[in-house]
Amino acid sequence: MKKYYFILLTLTIALSACGNTVTVSSTEQIVSTIYTAGAITLEAQVQMSSPTATPLPVSTATATPAPTLIPPTAMPILIQPTNEPSQNPAPVFWDTNAPIQVDHSLCNNSAYIDDITIPDGTVLVPGEIFVKTWTLENTGFCTWKDGYTLTFYEGNSMSGQDTEIGKTTASGREANFSIELTAPEEEGTYTGYWILKDSYGYPFGMPFYVQIVVTE
User: Fold this and answer.
1) Minimal CA–CA distance to 171: which of 118, 93, 107?
2) Beta bridge partner(s), residue 163
3) Pairing label, strands 203-214, 122-124
4) pLDDT in tens, 14-28
């Protein structure tokens, strides 16, 4: 608005300098024109600042957050055993003057439970063939397999031979084991001790025995 007042003032001074050669009506016409132009300009400014004017679009774009890096989780690796449970490193021999027993191994062990046939002191005739059966318990943590054997340990073998157990016996289980024997030809009391051997030929566990009386 100050700009238009300045223009009006300049024209007034110019008209006065010209000796009033322009008529009053002409001056009023010029002033009216200036006011009209100023009014139009002012109205345009008011419309631009009016709250009803359409606002400029505002960007609504949402900033994309940077991805969060998650370190990879290592998968556990299952390591399978490469060897079977430890067996006795070598055959064990015992002092016959010491109590009859066998060192316990880390894998195989056994315990005598009961006599099933031929109780101690059973009377037999010379040369009689019989079958002795024991109940044994697997007290080790390895399973007894078919290749395990009943093996003569000491005393009188009564013509018995090493015999495969012929069955699988899991740890903590009991089973019956039998062997065929023959009574000696001469009268007397006979005792024979037997023991278990694993598939590698290593004896283990507690020896068990058979005792008979041979008489006519």
Assistant:
1) 107
2) 150
3) parallel
4) 544 444 444 444 445
pLDDT grade for 195, boundaries at 50, 70 and 90: very high
- H/E element, 7: helix 2-17
Cβ-count burial of 178 within 10 angstroms (0-12 exposed, 13-18 middle, 19+ buried)? Answer: middle
CB atoms within 10 A of CB 132: 24
CATH superfamily of 110-214: Immunoglobulins (2.60.40.10)
Q: What is the pTM of this model?
A: 0.53
The tokens describing 164, both together, are 């495969």
Q: How far from 1 is each of 27, 31, 41, 44, 66, CA to CA, in Å?
A: 20, 14, 9, 13, 53
Sign of the four-CA dihedral 93, 98, 102, 104:
negative
Taking the C-alpha atoms of residue 160 and residue 182, their distance in angstroms, rounded to an integer, is 7
47-83 burial by CB neighbour count: b if 16+ within 10 A, else e?
eeeeeeeeeeeeeeeeeeeeeeeeeeeeeeeeeeeee
